[in-house]
Amino acid sequence: MAVLWLLLALLMPAASRAAEPYSLFGPPLRTPTVLVYGASADEPAPPGYAALDHWLVAHPSLPRIDMLGGSFWLVARFTPTQSATEWVVTFDNTYYDNADIWVLGDDGLRRQSESGADTGINDMPRGTLPVKLTAGHHYAVVIHVTSKFFTALPRIDLHTRAQYHQRRISETALMLGALGILFGLGVFILFVGLWIKDRGYTLYGSQALILVLGWSFFFGVPQGWLGVNTEPVNFAQWFILLPVVHARFTIRFLDLWRHAPRMARIGDGIVIGAIVALPLSLWLPSLAFLLATIGVSVAVLFSASMGLWSLLHGVRRARFFTLAFMATLIPGAIILPVNFGLVPSAVDNADLLTLIGNACEAMLLAFALADHVKLVEDGRERFRRGMQEAVAKASIDALTGLGNRLAFNVMIEEITRRENADPAEGTWQIAMIDLDGLKQINDREGHERGDDLLCAVGEGLARLGELIRAFRLGGDEFALIAYGDELGKQRLGRALDELDLALRKSDYPGAGISYGICSAPINQRHFSSADFAELIRLADRIMYAHKSQRYSERNAERPLSELGSE
């Protein structure tokens, strides 16, 4: 990723050799060559075009402005060839504190205006001066600019008035649209993060709102639109603050402390560096933009690199995250050499292009958060299904396929949580069942044969009806939970008698079932655990009475010789 960004940055000088910047946001520009001269405080401008050459002799020529700020004279000469007379001269492509702009002509023209962050008269951010020019005459734009720092090499542009208004409408709409996207996403995601107490969302929302403040200060919204004096704070402080939340969001979102702890430490180093740079930018204002450029560049490169690394290592949440920072890297590669004053801007408004890149980044990061939510929900759904399967497996008797004691207790808990809506239709019934003869079969024929008997009983109980749930509580103990009236209770008793008869007639000698059935009061609406415990005790008592009765009946049927041999 670093190699890619460096390659793009190295390609920018070749792209910048064009005579005029590539037009992205309006009609093509006419940009005369700007010459730079040294200036001193309170120095008057030349009185007219004719005195310009003599006036320039007294000023030292410089190769370019100092990006760390100062006071300079900028001079650009031009000769209009178009028939249009209504023109607008703009001083733009950089941030500056104050600029006095003059347009001088050999036809006697001398117009002046003031612009800059300190004056609150800048326009996205540019100084403008409408003038009437005559084709064939010679003119010069003379600008005295003073600033604590510059963000790029200044540029002087010439537009016809119609071209200027067309460009201003398109750039203003794009600026407000991009800021609106950042603000809307920032407020919404920040609110969601605070509501659900998720630090990743909170960091992302804070990052978007810091970008809104930084770009608003850069484009002069508080100063020019609201009339607010923001000194000594300017846009640079907001962009210095950006890596603090930017790096933390990357660490949090990509879970770097788990996947790449060394990289997480680098991210924390970026945070510490930004915190140290913030007061330094106020103490040394000329370094503010340089610190902001370095901090944001390092933070974006860190995030993009970590996104790509995570993507290559199978971290699915990094998909939209990586794409988001690609949307920032491309305009960043264009504007970075411009910010350091290495080359003129290759496009007509690199700052607006970067703002649009930030808006695209914010939208893609919102997709990344949404994608992350989907992945989390998918994980929760898989966990829920796994838990359901685990509970289902833990609730099933492996031998008979009936519910086990856990399932029996869970069903009782579910019943106690709801009300019997219509007691007239029936009530809950408990049947406790004991399998007779299992021990003898295990002893005589082996446990596999005993298991076959248990399965046969389980199959018989499972076929009793949809409103009857059967359970094997353990060993030779079974239970039924049914819902019905007294007639249903009688039918259940007959069905159990039929199952007992079928077992005795099968090839399981001595097998059968003893049971006891107990019903809750017919008018009872609410059932507690104590109520069901009492039903179970009563059903057990009836079952043991039934078992004792059956034992006596079987002994009465056996020959005296067998009884005597026992």
Task: Please provide a written account of the structure.
- It is an enzyme of class 2 (transferase).
- Residues 1-18 form the signal peptide.
- It comes from Dyella acidiphila.
- Helix content is 55%, strand content 16%.
- It has 566 residues and is an alpha+beta fold.
- The strands form three sheets. It has a six-stranded antiparallel β-sheet, with no helix packed on it. It has a four-stranded antiparallel β-sheet with strand order 11-12-10-13, sandwiched between helices. A three-stranded antiparallel β-sheet has the order 7-4-9.
- A hairpin with a 2-residue loop joins strand 11 and strand 12.
- Helix 3 runs parallel beside helix 11 (350-394), helix 8 (261-283) packs antiparallel against helix 9 and helix 9 (288-312) packs antiparallel against helix 10.
- The longest helix is centred in the middle third of the chain and has 45 residues, at 350-394.
- It is rod-shaped and about 140 Å long.
